[in-house]
TrEMBL record:
Intracellular or extracellular location(s): Cell inner membrane; Membrane
Transmembrane segments: 12-30, 72-96, 108-129
Domain MotA/TolQ/ExbB proton channel: residue ranges: 48-146
InterPro entries: ExbB/TolQ_transport, MotA_ExbB_proton_chnl
Record keywords, A-Z: Cell membrane, Membrane, Protein transport, Transmembrane, Transmembrane helix, Transport
Gene Ontology, cellular component aspect: plasma membrane
Protein name: TonB system transport protein ExbB
Source taxonomy: Bacteria, Pseudomonadati, Campylobacterota, Epsilonproteobacteria, Campylobacterales
Chief localisation class: membrane
Family the entry assigns: Belongs to the exbB/tolQ family.
Length: 159
């Protein structure tokens, strides 16, 4: 079975997963290009600071901006396996409907439905894993930036 047959057999759920994957990877690529090295990001935050206001509050505001889009990546990582499971349940249900209509004379009726059902589970897991890895990576990077910014920039404020 080639990729297009795999996608086609998975039905609407696989197409939804592909759509979510495109959205997620667009955000991941955007984050890889806009979250540069830690020191450059801290310098950018420092250039925006107004030392007449709370430095910590300003740093937290800048960090929230760095986190934009990460919730979408996280939600895709969480929802994808659930969509895959939904496709599995729908596929198994349709297999049982076929058995009800045609009887148990042909075992390929049931096995074919199960195979199709499992395609959605596979697709959901395939979409979920890289999104979870990317989310964890970006959250870790943003945390490092926040900690380092607070160490360096709060020192500047106290001088």
């Amino acid at each position: 079975m080639n990729l297009l047959e795999f996608i086609d057999k998975g039905g609407i759920i696989v197409y939804i997963l592909i759509f979510l994957n495109i959205i997620g990877f667009t955000i991941i690529i955007w984050k890889f290009t806009t979250l540069p090295q830690v020191n450059k990001t801290i310098a950018k935050i420092a250039s925006r600071l107004d030392f007449n206001h709370s430095t910590n509050a300003q740093i937290e505001y800048e960090v929230k901006k760095l986190e934009s889009g990460l919730v979408i990546i996280k939600n895709i990582a969480i929802i994808s396996p659930l969509l895959g499971l939904l496709g599995t349940v729908v596929g198994i249900y349709s297999s049982f409907e076929e058995i009800t209509i045609k009887g148990l004379g042909d075992p390929t009726i049931f096995s074919g439905g199960i195979a199709v059902a499992l395609i959605t589970t596979i697709a959901g897991i395939i979409v979920s894993i890289p999104h979870q890895i990317a989310y964890n990576h970006f959250i870790s990077l943003v945390d490092k930036i926040e900690i380092k910014a607070k160490k360096e920039l709060v020192k500047e404020e106290n001088r």
